[in-house]
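thought: fold this chain, then report.
action: predict
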Amino acid sequence: MEKFNSIVVGLLIALIIGVFLSPFASSFPDGLERVAEDKGFIKSAVDSGFPSLIADYTFPGVENEKLATSLAGFIGVIVTFVAAIAVGKAVARKESR
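observation:
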């Protein structure tokens, strides 16, 4: 039960950060994007071809930019949490064999 409580607390902290703090993230480019701009090869970037529901940390169809970013943070935390649980269960199953 203590393990479950720790997981829930961790998820809640991640959701608080993803939903309430993500709208205040810097709008400046990250390190790699900045280097690409400075060195002049940003224009040669190509789309990965991998579909993205929340590209550029905004949720499509939501006009309010801060709300769209919050929704993207929420979805991102939930997807990451589910993926981590799935990988953890797969590894645990493999190790128990």
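thought: worth noting. The mean pLDDT is 87.
final: tokens above.
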